[in-house]
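Example record

One chain of 219 residues, shown exactly as stored in the release files.
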Amino acid sequence: MKIKAIVFGTTGMVGEGVLHECINSSEVEEILIINRKSFEINNAKVKELIIKNFDDFNSVNYDFSNFSACYFCMGVSSVGMNPDKYYKITHDLTLLIANRLVKENKNMVFCYVSGSGTDSTEKGKIRWARVKGQTENELLNLGFKDSYMFRPGYIQPIKGLKNTYMFYKIFSPLYPVIRNLFTSATCTLKELGKSMINVTLNENKIKVLGNKEIQLLGK
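Predicted structure tokens for this chain:
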């Protein structure tokens, strides 16, 4: 089976890295990237759909029924953000998009990037972790063929990509030391992208994937 993938969030570091791995994978034959503004890429595998207001996603005239996977890498930091706005973007918008996709194609594999520290119980003291946990729980029960929640910690970027955040640029040279000291708290962006491709091709029993699982599946 060759993968036809939808990738959200390619204007961010994680989404760009996942797109990079999809382009370089012989297992992926077609990629649709969905953004608010153009990613400006010229590649035979890649098509782009611009949606300026994701709140209108249900009204978008596009057929998503032929895709085998969705790699959802779109998200925002909760730091300094109004809690209600964070909930709307992180939970409501994600579920709005996922519900449209599952309605058209229940055979799709849905991969969602949340983050280390996400609270599956939805009862912890940290609000962003509860919101992420609620979002994960609802996605896992939405009805896709399969769903995977990715919880990376520190992510080593892929050299040469344009959307690498300054924090990662600064610490990138130290990654061998960081990986050695905090193996279970790190993964590479390459491992993250490859692990998404691999769980699309072969079902994995573990659905909530931390750094150790991402490392293993991303080999």
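Notes: The first helix runs from residue 13 to 24.
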